Amino acid sequence: MNLAFSSSAVLAAAIAALSLSGCASASTALPAAQQAAGAGADLTAYPAPSTDQTRHVIRLPARPNEDDLKLELIVGKTQMVDCNNQRLGGAIETRTAEGWGYDYFVVSDLGQGVSTRMACPDNSTKQAFVRGGGEPTLIRYNSRLPVVVYAPRDVEVRYRIWTAGPEQDAPR
Predict the structure, then answer these.
(1) pLDDT higher at 6 or 69
(2) How far apart are CA 158 and CA 132, in angstroms?
(3) Could you tell me which residues are beta bridge partners of residue 108?
(4) 141 neighbors 66 (Cβ within 8 angstroms)
(5) Is residue 157 part of a domain?
(6) CA nearest neighbour of 126 among 94, 80, 159
(7) Are 58 and 161 in contact (CB under 8 A)?
(8) Which residues form the domain of 79?
(9) What Cα–Cα distance (Å) separates residue 172 from each residue in 3, 7, 27, 124, 169?
(10) The total number of structural domains that make up the chain
C-alpha cells in the first residue's frame, strides 16, 4: 500500500490518533491475569514464554476500515530520570509461529541505555517511562488475531493506534 501524506496531514492524523486512542498499555487490553497467561483466547499457535519472559496479549477491537490503521508497539521501563534525554537499547523482532503463519514479537534485553550528559540545574529526578526497542515498530491493525509480544519480565509493553489521513494526489 502506497501512502502519500503532506506534513500537515500527517501531523493532523497523528494528533487525532493520539487524542482519540492515546497511549494505552497492553495491560489495559486485558486484565493482568489474562495478559500474562494469555487467557480468554486460544494461544496454542504461539510458543509458551520462557521463564524470564512475560507474554503480553493485545486484543484489538473491530473497527471500520482497518486498512487505514496501524498499531505501534512501544517497549521500555519506568525509571528514575533527571533532565537528560534517556533511551534504552534492545530491539523488537518479528517471528512466525511454526506451522501457523501467525506473527508474534520478541523484545530483546533493553540493557542499561544511554543518556545525554547535561548538567541538571536542580539535580531533581522523577519517575518516567524510558523507551527502548530501536526504531518505532508499526504493524498492521488486525482485530481478528491477537498481537502477542514476549518481553523480559522487567519490560513494559505499550501501544498506540495510528490513523491514516485522507488520500491526496501527488504533485507531478
Answers:
(1) 69
(2) 11
(3) none
(4) yes
(5) yes
(6) 80
(7) no
(8) 23-163
(9) 16, 18, 46, 53, 9
(10) 1
Cα dist from 43 to 10, 34, 50, whole Å? 35, 12, 15
Nine cell digits for residue 81: 530520570
CA distance 89 to 107: 10
- Condensed to tens digits (0 to 9), the pLDDT of residues 80-133 reads 999 999 999 999 999 999 999 999 999 999 988 899 988 888 878 999 999 998
Give the CATH number of the domain where residue 133 resides.
Answer: 2.60.40.550
Instruction: Judge contact between 103 and 125, C-beta under 8 A.
Output: no
- Residue pointed to by grid coordinates 512466525: 96
Confirm whether 123 is domain-assigned.
Answer: yes
**Grid coordinates given for 129:** 517511562
Residue 114 is assigned to a structural domain of this protein: yes
Distance between CA atoms of residues 120 and 124, nearest Å: 8
**Over the stretch 31-84, which tens digit does the pLDDT of each residue have?**
343 344 444 458 999 999 999 999 999 999 999 999 999 999 999 999 999 999
Q: pLDDT value at position 11?
A: 40
